[in-house]
Specification:
The complex is a heterotetramer, with two copies of chain A and two copies of chain C.
Chain A (H helix, E strand, L loop, with lengths): L11 H11 L4 E4 L4 E4 L9 E8 L16 E7 L5 H11 L5 E6 L2 H16 L4 E6 L19 H13 L5 H13 L1 E9 L17 E4 L10 E4 L3 H15 L6 E8 L5 H17 L3 E8 L8 E9 L4 H6 L13 H4 L2
Parallel strand pairs in A: 3-4, 3-5, 5-6, 10-11
Antiparallel strand pairs in A: 1-2, 2-4, 7-8, 7-12, 8-9, 10-12
Chain C lengths: L4 H26 L4 H17 L3 H4 L7 H11 L4 H18 L4 H17 L9 H13 L3 H14 L23 H17 L9
Helix pairs in contact in C: 1-2, 1-9, 2-4, 4-5, 5-6, 6-7, 7-8, 7-9, 8-9
The chains are: A alpha/beta, C mainly alpha.
The complex binds adenosine-5'-diphosphate (ADP) (2 copies) and magnesium ion (4 copies).
Amino acid sequence: MSAPFLPAGDPVAPALRGFARAHAHLVELREDPVHLRARERDPRRVVGLVAGGGSGHEPMHAGFLGRGMLDAVAPGQVFASPHNRQVLHASLAAAGPEGVVHVVKNYTGDRINFGIAAERLRHEGVRVGRVLVDDDLATDDTDSATGRRGTGATVVVEKLLGAAADEGRGLDELTALGNAVAAASRSLAVASRAQTSFHTGEPAFDLAAGELEYGVGIHGERAATTIDRPPLPDLVVRMIDELLTGLPPGPGELLVLVNGMGATTQLELYGIFDQAAAVLEERGLRVAESLVGTYVPALDMAGFSLTLTRLRDGWRTWWRAPARTPAFPVLDDVNEEGR
Amino acid sequence: MSAPFLPAGDPVAPALRGFARAHAHLVELREDPVHLRARERDPRRVVGLVAGGGSGHEPMHAGFLGRGMLDAVAPGQVFASPHNRQVLHASLAAAGPEGVVHVVKNYTGDRINFGIAAERLRHEGVRVGRVLVDDDLATDDTDSATGRRGTGATVVVEKLLGAAADEGRGLDELTALGNAVAAASRSLAVASRAQTSFHTGEPAFDLAAGELEYGVGIHGERAATTIDRPPLPDLVVRMIDELLTGLPPGPGELLVLVNGMGATTQLELYGIFDQAAAVLEERGLRVAESLVGTYVPALDMAGFSLTLTRLRDGWRTWWRAPARTPAFPVLDDVNEEGR
Amino acid sequence: MTATAAPVLRRYAESVAAAHDELTRLDQASGDGDFGDNLRSGLTRVLAELDRPGAELDRPGAAHGFDVAGRVFLDEVGGTSGPLFGLLFTELARALDENPDGGWARGTAAGLAAIQRVGEAEVGDRTLVDALAPAAAELERGTGFAAAARAAAEGARATADLRARRGRASYVGERARGLPDPGAMGVALLFEALAATKDPGFSAGLC
Amino acid sequence: MTATAAPVLRRYAESVAAAHDELTRLDQASGDGDFGDNLRSGLTRVLAELDRPGAELDRPGAAHGFDVAGRVFLDEVGGTSGPLFGLLFTELARALDENPDGGWARGTAAGLAAIQRVGEAEVGDRTLVDALAPAAAELERGTGFAAAARAAAEGARATADLRARRGRASYVGERARGLPDPGAMGVALLFEALAATKDPGFSAGLC
Ligand SMILES: Nc1ncnc2c1ncn2[C@@H]1O[C@H](COP(=O)(O)OP(=O)(O)O)[C@@H](O)[C@H]1O
Ligand SMILES: Nc1ncnc2c1ncn2[C@@H]1O[C@H](COP(=O)(O)OP(=O)(O)O)[C@@H](O)[C@H]1O
Ligand SMILES: [Mg+2]
Ligand SMILES: [Mg+2]
Ligand SMILES: [Mg+2]
Ligand SMILES: [Mg+2]
C-alpha cells in the first residue's frame, strides 16, 4: 500500500509537471537532467541563486522560484539529494556574469552533490559561492562532524539573498550574507505524528497518543528524544527558551518563522505564533518580522517548527521586498509601497 | 485529549490574534463582536464584499482579505456558523455606498445568520446582495430542501467578485456575477483519513487502510459512500467524469481547482492536477486557469477536492487580476504586467 | 386583546426552566442538544435586564420586554433558534409599540414572515414554523390567545410525525421521528405563557 | 610505470561483479545497501561505451577509458559514492592525458584532493578516503602499483575498527563496527585491478 494520493512509481515527476503547468507564468521545467528555472529576473541581478534538495518539503524550494528569490532549483527524489548533474544544469541555467550562489541545506548528500557540481562549474569557468544552512538546534552536537541539519531557516536565507541579489550585489557579498543569515538562525521542530511513508502508506514511525518527538528532522528520522506532550503554552516556552540559549548573541530584533510540518492546520500555526510572540516579548525581545505557514514540511508529518533569526541592519527591508513566486506571500507594506 | 497543538478552550481567538499580527499590514482584527477587515481597498470599489463561516477551513476566508478580494470576514467557531452580529458588524465595516454583497456557503447556519444580519442591515438602510455558493456535487439530491453544500468554489467566487468589485461594479451586477460563478462550478471531495477531532484528538471517523470517503464534506460529516481506494488515475477519471456530468453545460474553457483537505502534500496535489488536466484535455476541454493548494481544508483531513468552473467571457481577466491578501498566490502574468 | 410583554416573558422563562430537560432531550434526539440551554440562557439574560433597577421606567408600555428580548436573542443567543426567536421578539416589540391591542396578531405574522424569509422553512419542514404558523393564523382570525396557544401546541406535537427538511435535524433523517421538534415546542410554550398571563388557569398541556 | 586505462577498468569491472554481493552486504550493515549496485552498474555502462564499435579509436592513449568513466560516474551513477568515483576517474584521465607514465601518482593525488574538497572526509572517518589516501601516498613515493594496492587493501580492512563520522554510516553509530566500509573496499579493488593488470598473478587478498 503506497501513500494515498501519490502515483505508483515516481511521485516527483508528475508533481513537477503539474507545478510547472500551474505556474507556467513564473517557472519553467527543464528535463534531462530535471531542473526548474524562474522565468523572470531582476535585470540588476549579476549572480544566479540556485537551491535544491530532496522532494517532500514543498513549497520549498521550487515554490520560491521567481523574481526576488531563486533563479533555479534542482529537485531530488523524495528525501534524496538531487544528482550533481541536476545542480550543474540548474546552475548553468541560473548563472549571472558573476556566477552562482548555491543554497545548500546541511546534509551529506546535498553537500556532496552541490560540491561536485561546484567542481564541474569551476572547471567550466563559472564562479560558485556556497551558503550552507545549518539551523537545526536538535543536531547541535559537537561530537559529530556532520553538524546541524538545515531546516526552516532556508526560507529566510532564500528570501534575504534574493532581495540582496536584486540590488546587484556580488558573489562574495551574497555568499557572506547567506552564511550570516544561517549563522543568525536556529530552529527546533516537534511532531505528534510521523509522515506517511511513501512506500508503505503507514506512518514512518510510531508515536503513542500524547507523545511528542522533540527535535525531529524533516526526513522521517526520529528525534533524539520522545517526550510526553506538555500543554501547548509550556511546549512553546520550552522551545523558545532552548532556541534563545542556542542562538548566538546579537540584535534583539527577531524574525519568527512558525512552520507547519505538513498536516498542521493554520488554526494551530497562528495560535502557536501568537503564543511564541508573547513569550519572546516577555523575554524582552522584539518580533519584528514573521512568517506563519507550511513552508518546509516533511511530507504530511503532524508537527511544527520554530525558527528564530536575529535581524541585522537592512535585513528587514530585504525580507519585505516584493517577491513574485508561486509560494512566498505578500509581505510588503501597503503604505510604503502604494502599488 | 485535545488536538495536539490547539490551546485548551477557545482555539479560534488565539489563531485570529496570531493571524492579525502576522498580517498586520493587510488585515485588522476587531473585537466585540469578532470580525476582520482589510486595510486596503481599491478606491473604485462601491460595494463591500463580506464572507464568513465556521473556522477550520483556513486560509478561507480571512486569508483572502485584502485589495482585490474581500473587505471583511466573520469567522465562527470551528465548523460553526458565525453569529449574525459578527456578520452585521463585518458588513458595517465593509459597506460601500452601494452596500455589501454576502458570500454565503450553503449551510443552514450560515444562511440563517447571514440572513438575519441582512434583515438588520436593511433596517439600517444598507443594501445587501447574497451570493450563495453551492458547488458540492456529492449533495446534489433533489429530495433535500437544503441543497448542495458550498465548498471549494468559494475561492473562485471570492476572487472573481473581488476583481469585478474593483472595477466599480454595482450591487446587483456583483450579486448576479457571484451566483453565476457558483452556478458554473461543481466540486467533489475524497478523504483517506478524517480530520482530528478538536475535542477528542482522535480521527473524527474511522476509515480502514485502503478505504476512501467519496463525496466527503468539509465539516467532518462522513460521505454518503465509502469505496475501496482505486489507483489514483482511475480515481481522478471517475471524479472528473462525474463532475462533467453534474456541471451545467457552457463554455469548454475551465478553471480547475485542486484543493487539499488539510494533510495532503503539494507533491500529491500537483500530481493530481497533472492527471486531472490530462483527463480534461482528453475529453476535449481546455484547462485555461488553475489553482493548486490547500485553500478550503477541513482541519487536517487527508484528502483532496476537485472544483471545475466553466469560464465565461472576462472571467479569466478577473481571475488573474492582482490580489494583495495573506493567502492568494501570484497569478498575474509577468509579460502582461511587467511590474 | 391586550397583554404587556414583561409578565408574558417572566411566565415564559418559568415554563422554559421547567421544560429545560425535556427540550434538551428533544434536541439530543434530532440535533446537537443545546436548544434547552440556548433558550433558557437567553430568557435569563432578558429577565436580568428587565429586573435591572430603573429598567421598567426606561420605556414603559406594552412592547417593553420584547425589545429587550429581541436585542438579546439577536445579539447574544447562539444556535439556529436564538436569532430566529430574536426576529419574532423584535417584530412583536415593533407591532405592540404601534398598537398595544392589535399588536399580537400583527407582530406574530411579521415575526413568522421574517423567520421564513431568513430560515426558508415551510410548514411541514419540522421546525418552529410548524408551531408559529398556526398560532399566527388563529390570532389573525381573532379567536383569542387560548386558541392560538392550543393551535401552537397542536402544531408542535404534530411535528413528531414529520421528517425534518430544514436545520440540523434534516441530517439524521428518520431517526428523530416519534418525538416533536424542540424549536416548535419552545414556540408553543411562548403562546401558552401568553394565554396563561391572561387566564392564569390556562394550560395547553405541553410538558 | 605505465598502464592504460581500459584494461584496468575491464579487470576492475570483473572483480566488482564478483564482489557485488559482499559489497551489498557491507552497505546493508552500515548504510542503505545500494553501494554494490551503484558501482557495478556504473562500470557496466562504462564498458558498454568502451565496447561501442569504433570507440577505441575515438581517443586512443593511456587516459582513454577514465574520461568515459569520469563522465558516466559523475553524470549517471547515484549514491554518494558514484560521483566521488567520478571525480577520481576524471582526475586520473586528466593526469594520464598529460603524462602517460607519471600520471597515476598525480591523478590519484588530485582525485583524493577533489574527493576531500567535496566530501570533507579526513582519514579515519571511515570512508573510501581511508583506502585512497594510503594508495596515493605509496604512488607518490614511487613504490609501485602492488605496494599501492596493498596499502589500499590494508586501509580498507582497517575501517572495520572505525566509527563512521561521515556519510550515511555515521547515523548508525557503533552498529557498523566489525565490518569494513564498502566504499573503501571498492577503492581497494580498483588498485588491486591496476596492480593485476601489470602483474596478472597479483592479489591483495580482498574478497
Ligand atoms: N430553517 C429553519 N427555520 C426555522 N426554524 C429552524 C430552522 N432550522 C432549525 N430551526 C429550529 O431550530 C431548532 C433548533 O435550535 P438550536 O438547537 O438552537 O439550533 P442548532 O441546530 O444550531 O443547535 C429546531 O428544533 C428547529 O425548530
Ligand atoms: N563524505 C564522504 N567522503 C568520502 N566518501 C564518502 C563520504 N560519505 C560516504 N562516503 C563513501 O560512500 C560509501 C557509500 O556509497 P553509496 O552507498 O553509494 O552512498 P549512499 O550512502 O548515498 O547510498 C561509503 O561506504 C563511503 O565510503
Ligand atoms: Mg441545537
Ligand atoms: Mg447548536
Ligand atoms: Mg549506499
Ligand atoms: Mg543510497
